[in-house]
From TrEMBL:
Top-level taxon: Bacteria
SUPFAM superfamilies: alpha/beta-Hydrolases
AB hydrolase-1 domain residues: 40-139
Keywords: Hydrolase
Protein name: Alpha/beta hydrolase
Region (Disordered): 63-85, 179-206
A Pfam entry, by short name: Abhydrolase_1
Example of a GO MF term: hydrolase activity
Ranges of biased composition (kind: Basic and acidic residues): 72-85
Length: 296
């Protein structure tokens, strides 16, 4: 892969200092080759290192969402909403000064992208929402939301290990959630290599800051339908994610918008190339993303 110069910038948000990285020269972005913004939540910019390397021919922007990595929060709030993240994305795009971008959002980043496009479609030419966890759109939404709430309560009560074990069980579950989810046996943290002892900390960005607000988000379908007149919206699902919460939510969101979801290679984190010890199929994933963007 070609070596691309990376410049790190900061911009002030409402109650947070946002740090983002620009791979390439923003002056080279334009109508024929817009900047590509890769976002997750609460995953930091470092999670897109491999995927970004497959787009060395264009300007790529990655960032650390508020409360993670290099983007400290100053608001003192316990949780962060998708609307707050959307406003952060707005500030990053406007600070970049390269015109409307193409936006790829994965997981919580896809949720935040939905919130952004609903209110500022003028900032985004094409938005690819990869497996947004929005259980409210599902027939079993109340039960799925209750399961997500249970993960958050477990974190507050017992700490990271037990809560993360439940999170893995929730995200990996195939099929609808039953009403009695909380009555099922709790998974053993040790089975996932997670700590069984509570270290007393409650500052985990995923389990504490974003879990309830992200999964509790309800897309504004009326606003998104209006936005689709100027912004191309694509819902993406992983081939191996079929039946799982995030893939089901993506498919249901697409249906509400009258769209067919696009199938990407492999699973929910397929774009990872060893980041966080996880290996997907980033080359195939990047090729599919490039095809999807080019189709617009």
């Amino acid at each position: 892969m070609a070596v691309v110069e990376r410049v790190t910038r900061t911009v002030e948000g409402a109650g947070a200092t946002l740090t983002y990285d620009v791979h390439g020269d923003p002056a080279e972005a334009g109508a024929d080759n817009p900047a590509l913004l890769l976002v997750g939540s609460p995953m930091e910019a470092s999670g897109f290192t491999t995927l970004a390397s497959h787009f060395a021919d264009r300007v790529v922007v990655t960032y650390d969402p508020r409360g993670t990595g290099r983007s400290p929060r100053t608001d003192g709030a316990e949780e962060t909403t998708p609307q707050e993240h959307a406003d952060d994305l707005r500030r990053v795009i406007e600070d970049l000064g390269a015109g409307p971008v193409e936006l790829f959002g994965s997981s919580g980043g896809a949720v935040n992208g939905l919130a952004l496009v609903a209110v500022r479609p003028d900032l985004v030419r094409t938005f690819v929402a990869h497996e947004p966890p929005v259980p409210a759109v599902l027939p079993d939404g109340p039960h799925a939301l209750a399961a997500c709430e249970d993960v958050h309560r477990t974190y507050l009560r017992s700490g990271m290990g037990p809560a993360m074990a439940k999170f893995i069980a929730v995200t990996g579950r195939t099929g609808p959630f039953p009403e009695n989810w909380a009555d099922e046996p709790a998974p053993d943290p040790a089975a996932f290599g997670l700590p069984t002892e509570d270290d007393g900390r409650r500052d985990d960005p995923l389990l504490g800051q974003n879990m309830r607000a992200c999964t509790g988000y309800r897309p504004d379908f009326e606003a998104l339908a209006a936005a689709a007149r100027s912004t191309r919206i694509v819902l993406a699902v992983g081939k191996e994610s079929e039946g799982q919460l995030c893939a089901r939510a993506a498919a249901a969101t697409a249906a509400r918008l009258g769209l067919e979801p696009v199938v990407f290679p492999s699973h929910h984190a397929d774009f990872l190339g060893g980041e966080f010890g996880q290996q997907g199929e980033p080359e195939a994933f990047a090729a599919t993303l490039r095809e999807v963007l080019a189709a617009g």
